[in-house]
Amino acid sequence: MTYSPANTIWVLLGAALVFFMQAGFAMCEAGFTRAKNTGNILMKNLMDFCIGTPLYWLIGFGIMFGSGTALFGWIDPFIMKDYSAILPAGVPLWAYAIFQTVFCATSATIVSGAMAERTKFSAYCVYSAAISLFIYPVSGHWIWGGGWLAELGFHDFAGSTAVHMVGGVCALIGAKMLGPRIGKYGKDGKPKAILGHNLSIAALGVFILWFCWFGFNGASTVGMDSDELIESAGLVFFNTNLAAALATLVTMLFTWLRYGKPDVSMTFNAALAGLVGITAGCDAVNPFGAAVIGICCGFAVVLAVEFFDKVVKIDDPVGAISVHGVCGALGTILTGFFATGISTMKGVFYGGGFTFLGVQLLGVLCTITWTAVVITIVFALIKKTIGLRADAADEAMGLDRSEHGLTTAYSGFSILPDSAVMETEAAPVPVESAETNAVPHKTKEKAPDEPVYTRVQIICRPASLESLKTAMNKIGITGMTVTNVMGYGMQKGKPEYYRGTPVEVTLLPKVQVDIVVSKVPVRTVIDTARGVLHTGHIGDGKIFVQDVENVVRVRTGEEGYDALQAD
User: Fold this and answer.
1) Which residue segments constitute the domains of the chain, with CATH numbers given?
2) Rounded to whole angstroms, how far apart are CA atoms 15 and 10?
3) What pTM was estimated for this model as a whole?
């Protein structure tokens, strides 16, 4: 066989980009979940790839691409048989094998997010192995390995169904069997928002995935050595980007109208929903079709997240079921409407009738059935043996500590007791020495005519701090203490939404400013503060006034009025 350098390099480059999607999924899942489970999330995204790689080499690739029957390839440990019938032109076996390996890992890692924060790590390793070993390869054989769906003309160019929907169905069954996280639903059955801890990391994950998707879809042409393949790759890239952008835009506008503000995390999900939806037909539709698919996915992901969260009460922390399961199926079916005949049958809107659409529907339904039945058996066996869900105490503590002995994934951002330092500290200074070195002072009785000392505590928005500080200095206050705090007032925080779920009590960031005055009239401080802080809207803040018995300046020993004045 004569190998094509262009085709081989293209496939290997695509494999590298698809592998890097693991980092994107890890960042998204970590960002959308709580900090106490970050290490566990990262570990799962590493290990599903490391578990799936040898198992796909051992069994999975043969099942998927072996020339067996229309339902099943063959058992070929270590990929030893002849696969020339399915190899792309000019691409060596091992280049194609690694390309397919990273696709298999993508399907397995999708499940992690939907089952996050309450799944045993040992259980995750087992069901991840099952997905890579036989669940994904069997349906993959039907679609890409020359199986019965391929013979019917089913079209899934890069895996909306074969990869993403399979992962989404596994996620749905797993999340349902696990049950929701502790505290997710109240006694009345209404969902409660459990916010992700780091949207910056989640955003990074989205951008990584979007970038890598050009390899996921583009390199699925598995060649670049002809004008036809080059033109096809260009169309695939353009359609992939267009669908993602429009899905994101639609979701931003839709959530803005629906919740009163554009939902950040839902909009992040929409970018992935558009990418998943266009993956099936990115080579077969024109840009208009890609745009419509992206728009449909933008609406669908919002409605699906709300449906699973509020109606059927399946707790999916990252929206994986909606993004990959729902939009994977939707994109595959919509290809049956918008395929132009460039590389497959024509869709309904291009004169192809309903035959191709029927094949697409059949393929989606059969893949769902296969995946759901087998993964249900796998989860049931895990539940009966090693257990699927972590103990309630471990879940409350966080899986980082209970599953991995990791105190925190953010040690540089936490203050922990340092026993080594504490044990080697010098002996404390005796009380007598401290008294000798201190400036002598004598507490005095308060005279009837002595000034009154008053503490004025102001709670306000962080954005108002600079204006408040400037105004206080102008009226002559001699000092202030500023603290960043969180809290809410009579309105229990301004009503907000997270992924379509109302956040019942929002602890809003505030600033607490403490001022003690004697010379400056208290009423002057209050009126000045109100003048600076007043906007007429909820959240302007409050001012508390308290008597202070005495004031002592530590450095000089001065008390009372003298302690409040400048040197």
Assistant:
1) 5-218+228-404 (1.10.3430.10), 447-564 (3.30.70.120)
2) 9
3) 0.82
